[in-house]
Specification:
- Pfam families: SSF.
- One of its GO terms (biological process) is sodium ion transport.
- This protein is mainly α.
- The strands form 2 sheets. The protein has a two-stranded antiparallel sheet with strand order 1-2.
- Helix 4 crosses helix 7.
């Protein structure tokens, strides 16, 4: 007789095989030039662009971190991710993404660093953007591996250890990225996005039925967690919600795997349709994910150390095979983020660091091999770091979001203000990063009743203040300095027109 463990691992394994088959098909159709490997030849249509962005962004942070947060502190986080960031990022998709698409189409850019380095005539700025992006990408890749390890622990009730789940997804994503390129990643993301949406809504219906229906779940929540039924009854203040929504949305716009998707659309119309539909998809995934975490709190689910609430809840209220199917959907979310992150990270490394500083005359074939070696090394290092569990999924993800957010306003200023100078860009990017890193790594300092150095200032999160500082420095220093002769002050406007 087939054991429960065999069913669980068989379902997850079968899904991985299907995803790998899609990647192999894409490999056969992908040419070996860099633009096709990294950007799928700038030929992506509306459905694929929408779902590859959706599946790439909505990762372990969503599938496991979200329900865990709702389970511990209430469902209001849905206001941050499901509503506010759905709308805010859609706006940024137009403000940053459309402009970037026009510039990239006109000049053939592949990375954000390439675009900024050319605009300001600076290899050092190009390297700074790439280096910071890889630095903040590290914890977010690690988050996916942590999520995989915790998912397998929860699904198998600890029979399969944390390290095995993390190692499994690490090996898979290395193999997948090495062979697939963006075309394979985008195709698989579309499959994974549809799969994620389907299984999470099925999970809501199944748990609701098994637990006695919506009224029984509401009564259980009113008995065990009555504060979760009132807005503001959890642990969130308006300042926390707004600060989190802003830093996450702006951080997402600078994520390498998201930012690079601003270059890949087949046309401007594709880009516009995609960001218009974005808020709908976000709500469709976040609402059921947070509902499940909130219901678990009301039902009194006991979550083992090192596990996530979602697989534990499903093991309790749904059949073994279905719980495994939903975890496979969560693994899909993690893989669709990890493969895109590793692919984009490799392009940042090879095009913005390796080519300009190490081997400017490298052939495309050599660049491709360097990229693949970089993928394997980067994923291995993040796996080792994930074994130390430096925080919860939400804490690790939030730290990465804030780091990327510090680059957003200088980039937006550069895209829209022709008088932005190289000195202003260095001041804005470095100033915001130094301020933010100091708050990440240095404990809060209190002097009497006053916070001199802490997590908030005037009740607003330090990440938001770092963003304000980056914008002020970019504009202020640019206003006080003169562009160098090699800076292309009109690079973003010459020859560009609305599509």
């Amino acid at each position: 007789m087939v054991s429960q463990l065999e069913i669980q691992l068989g379902v997850v394994g079968a899904y991985l095989v299907v995803a790998l088959a899609v990647g192999l098909l894409a490999y056969r159709l992908t040419s070996r030039d860099a633009e096709d490997y990294y950007l799928a030849g700038r030929s992506v249509g509306t459905v694929v662009l929408l779902f590859t962005t959706f599946a790439t962004l909505l990762s372990a942070f969503t599938f496991f971190g979200g329900p865990d947060l709702a389970f511990r502190a209430g469902p209001e986080w849905i206001l941050v991710m499901g509503v506010m960031d759905g709308v805010l990022f859609a706006i940024l998709w137009y403000v940053v993404g459309y402009k970037q698409w026009l510039v990239g189409k006109a000049h053939g850019y592949v990375t954000l660093g390439e675009m900024l380095g050319d605009r300001f005539g600076s290899k050092r700025l190009r390297a700074l953007v790439a280096g910071l992006s890889l630095f903040w990408l590290f914890p977010y890749v690690m988050l996916q591996q942590m999520g995989a390890g915790e998912a397998i622990v929860g699904l198998t009730n600890g029979i399969v250890p944390y390290w095995a789940g993390a190692a499994g997804i690490t090996v898979f994503m290395i193999v997948y990225v090495v062979i697939a390129g963006l075309r394979g990643v985008a195709w698989t993301d579309t499959l994974q996005g549809l799969f994620m949406l389907g299984v999470v809504w099925l999970a809501v219906g199944w748990v609701a039925t098994a637990a006695g229906g919506p009224s029984a779940l509401s009564n259980a929540l009113a008995t065990n967690k009555p504060e979760f039924l009132a807005l503001g009854g959890g642990l969130y203040s308006p300042q926390f919600i707004i600060s989190s929504a802003v830093t996450i949305a702006f951080g997402v716009a600078m994520f390498p795997q998201i930012n690079q998707r601003f270059f890949v659309a087949k046309s401007g119309a594709v880009l516009k349709r995609s960001f218009a539909l974005w808020p709908v998809l976000v709500v469709l995934l976040f609402v059921p994910a947070f509902i499940l975490g909130t219901w678990a709190a009301g039902l009194g689910i006991s979550v083992p150390e090192g596990a996530n609430v979602l697989p534990v809840l499903l093991n309790e209220y749904t059949p073994v095979w279905f719980a495994a199917l939903v975890v496979a959907g969560a693994m899909a979310a993690m893989m669709s983020s990890s493969d895109s992150m590793l692919l984009s990270g490799s392009s940042y490394f090879t095009r913005d660091l390796y080519r300009p500083f190490v081997n400017p005359s490298a052939t495309d074939a050599r660049e491709a091999w360097i990229a693949r070696i970089g993928v394997a090394l980067f994923a291995t290092l993040t796996f080792v770091a994930s074994l130390f569990r430096p925080g919860t999924l939400v804490e690790v993800g939030d730290t990465a979001f804030g780091g990327f957010a510090q680059m957003a306003l200088p980039v937006i200023v550069a895209l829209y203000w022709a008088k932005t100078t190289r000195s202003g860009m260095f001041a804005g990017i470095l100033g915001g990063q130094v301020f933010y890193l100091a708050h990440v790594f240095i404990p809060a300092v209190e002097v009497g009743s006053m916070t001199v150095f802490g997590a908030t200032y005037l009740t607003w999160d330090y990440a938001l203040w770092g963003m304000v500082l980056s914008a002020v420095l970019t504009v202020g220093v640019s206003a006080l300095t003169v562009a160098a002769p090699e800076e292309n002050q009109h690079r973003f406007t010459e020859g560009l027109r609305a599509d």
